[in-house]
From TrEMBL:
Keywords: Leucine-rich repeat, Repeat. Belongs to the PRAME family. LRRC14 subfamily. This is Leucine-rich repeat-containing protein 14B. GO terms for cellular component: cytoplasm. The keyword Transit peptide does not apply. PANTHER family: LEUCINE-RICH REPEAT-CONTAINING PROTEIN 14B (PTHR14224:SF27), SIMILAR TO PREFERENTIALLY EXPRESSED ANTIGEN IN MELANOMA-LIKE 3 (PTHR14224). SUPFAM superfamilies: RNI-like.
Amino acid sequence: RTTMKSLRFICAEAFVSNAEFARKSLGAVAHDLFPLLFKASYLLEQGEVIHDLVENWPLFDFNMGKLLGATLDYQEDLSHRTCSVCLESCLTGLRDYVLNQSSPYMKKLKVVDLTGIKDVEVQFCKCKKTMGRWARTQLLSKLCSELLVYLQQAQCNPGIFEISINVLIDLFVTERNYELVVQALLKKCSCPLKICCVAFRSDNLTLQKFFYIIKLTDASLLRKLEIVHNVHLEMGHLEMLFNSIHFPLLTSLTLPARTFNVRRFTATDEQMLTNIGEKMGEMTQLTELSMSFSILTGRIQNLLSPLKTPLKMLDVSNCCLNHADMAFLANSFHANHLEALDLSGHDIPGLYPSTFFKLLSHCSSVLRSLTLEDCNIQDTHVNMLILGLSPCQKLQEFKFIGNPLSSQALKHLFTFLCELPMLKNVEFPVPRDCYPIGITYPIDDASLCRFDRQKYERVAEELNLILLQANREDVKASTPLFGSYDAAVQETNNELGAYLIKSFKETLEKFTTSFNKMT
């Protein structure tokens, strides 16, 4: 599909396509044309022009989401293009904006917002090299540190020290970039570019380092907090975090696996859980909560009943929920507001079918994303599932990998899914009849790939044909065996892999030592 361009945008493209001419002519360009030229340069990946536009930015704010989003001159949204050439040019241009004293424009810039950049799986930029969230965190921190070193060493114009620009960014910190980010945050007061953390993701970090860096970020600005892989946060640490730091604007919270484990609970732990629930209740903006792979049997009410704002997103996948938990969810005030729900890893048909469908009916008018992976949904349950999903007319995404469904049942389900007008993405399981007879569910990792590929391809073609015949080419159907695409994991998988190998080696050494002592 070709997106229409205005005559102004076509002229802007022609102007920036000759980089040498454009860079020489910027001094004569009207202020209000800079956003137009920026988007045209980004589309054409004209790194040098992008750098010079940012270096001479004449306006009060620089908002990447708005600059690259749909505009009257060019409707296509470019904010999902995390092109390395463009983003590096942008950030180095920002550094040089501070240093450049010969710019013909008065320095008005006060706010730079980098939070509108979206990391996606498929990139359309010509260079095919992306700069993800981790790399953006790394580069901005590095530029801030370099800027400070330069200002300390060189004979600078005193005017530089009057420049103060708030740079809003979604930080992504791991062991590998931790020191660099810490240095940038510690010296924030002295640096003309002031990192303002709006969202914070922490992977592969010791608890001590996590607590130190989270206190360096200004928690009063934080809207999203993700504590994920290899941050060994347990319930006591979470209570300590909430007691020591106030998060008034937090809208989204993701906790690591095994934060909660009610099977080991004492009376003290029960009180601790109540305290955490109350602290979460004080977060009046909180609407998204992810607590996957914790053991929360019978305790969902303790955590969610104190919340004063209804949740729009809830991920309680693999949390060992019982009937009381599901009954609470179905009857709570959250149910009518849930736009995204993940109940993966629960035997829904076997444990609480009617309660689940009650929950589904309550959120059906707003539900956009439903994930039911490894939920023991079988052929005999498909008609009931169709009945439950029928009112969900706003559903955009349905993921149900890992369920023991036959190819015939999948065809029946796909015929129905064609009727959901907003549906865009479906993740379906490898049909049961593609696996050897006697396969047990949930399928272990060793057996996951041992299926008849040719038969699967034939079934996948038939399912796509059902979509095609219903004029639903807009629906993407796939089977990501090892989970959906995660930009953050993809970007740092080498570091994550190295950490897992190191942990395995340490565990093996401890086992060997213990074994040797016994023999």
